[in-house]
């Protein structure tokens, strides 16, 4: 189904995307499943990656390729964005049907998911005809009057008629908000840590995916718009060779401001202030919000 181009209008339909968790869920899915730059045509790839939105889809690009491809359109970008969108939609629907990663999603299951989420009318007519076992509708350049069948039903009308008495799952009639993860990070103080007695401590990078997901939901630190990415502080010695700073050292930035920063750190900090100052302000916000708690 991922290679079936007739399904692309369905996968890219805004109602279908909302039914599958929304556009932001695609970014989260990509961050979990893709660990390197997806652009195959570059000679150089930076170690840091970002989500590059493209139409209704998105892709994972390194900083270098993201700067190179910004505001560009091409058939290759279209194909990559659609490929990611289709893969994520199929994964979501397969999970909803209690299927495993090893099993392929069937067309019948996809259509049943569409019926349950009241987006079956977004399925192309040709796809519905296949799922209902109807003959392929022939497209002719010229129709004779004798070829016209009065009152012939479309595939979607047949599907609606057959499913009108089906009791849909509860979540269709009454949307229940998904359970929120406990966005609380506790920072403990260990006065007996043996590492403090070492002459040279081994660098350890802390990963806090719950915290970075919360950071992404906050307002951009520079313009106040909705953030798009949690930006790890760069250029101040908080990271290592090819390594990001700890997940604690992040600030929320929208895509425009994030691109502006990576285009020139010096110009960005002259305009908006030091990243370290922005980080301290955001850490105070996280602490005052109760998301970060200090434990002595």
UniProtKB/TrEMBL annotation:
This is DUF968 domain-containing protein. Coiled coil: none annotated. CDD domains: HNHc. It holds the Pfam family DUF968. Residues 210-259 form the HNH nuclease domain.
């Amino acid at each position: 189904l991922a290679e079936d181009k007739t399904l692309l209008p369905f996968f890219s339909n805004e109602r279908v995307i909302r039914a599958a968790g929304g556009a932001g869920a695609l970014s989260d899915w990509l961050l979990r499943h893709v660990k390197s730059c997806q652009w195959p045509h570059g000679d150089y790839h930076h170690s840091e990656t970002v989500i590059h939105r493209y139409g209704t889809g998105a892709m994972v690009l390194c900083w270098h390729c993201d700067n190179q491809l910004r505001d560009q359109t091409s058939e290759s970008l279209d194909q990559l964005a659609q490929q990611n969108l289709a893969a994520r939609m199929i994964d979501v629907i397969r999970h909803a049907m209690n299927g495993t990663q090893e099993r392929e999603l069937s067309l019948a299951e996809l259509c049943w998911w569409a019926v349950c989420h009241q987006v079956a009318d977004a399925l192309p007519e040709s796809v519905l005809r296949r799922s209902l076992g109807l003959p392929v509708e022939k497209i002719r350049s010229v129709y004779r009057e004798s070829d016209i069948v009065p009152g012939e039903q479309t595939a979607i009308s047949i599907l609606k008629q057959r499913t009108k008495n089906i009791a849909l799952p509860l979540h269709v009639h009454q949307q229940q908000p998904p359970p929120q993860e406990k966005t609380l990070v506790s920072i403990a103080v260990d006065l007996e840590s043996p590492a403090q007695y070492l002459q040279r401590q081994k660098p350890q990078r802390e990963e806090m995916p719950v915290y970075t997901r919360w950071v992404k939901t906050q307002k951009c630190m520079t313009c106040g718009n909705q953030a798009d990415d949690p930006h790890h502080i760069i250029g101040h010695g908080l990271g290592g060779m090819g390594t990001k700073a700890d997940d604690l050292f992040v600030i929320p930035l929208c895509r425009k401001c994030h691109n502006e920063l990576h285009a020139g750190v010096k110009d960005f900090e002259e305009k908006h202030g030091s990243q370290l100052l922005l980080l301290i302000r955001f850490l105070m916000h996280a602490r005052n919000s109760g998301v970060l708690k200090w434990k002595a």
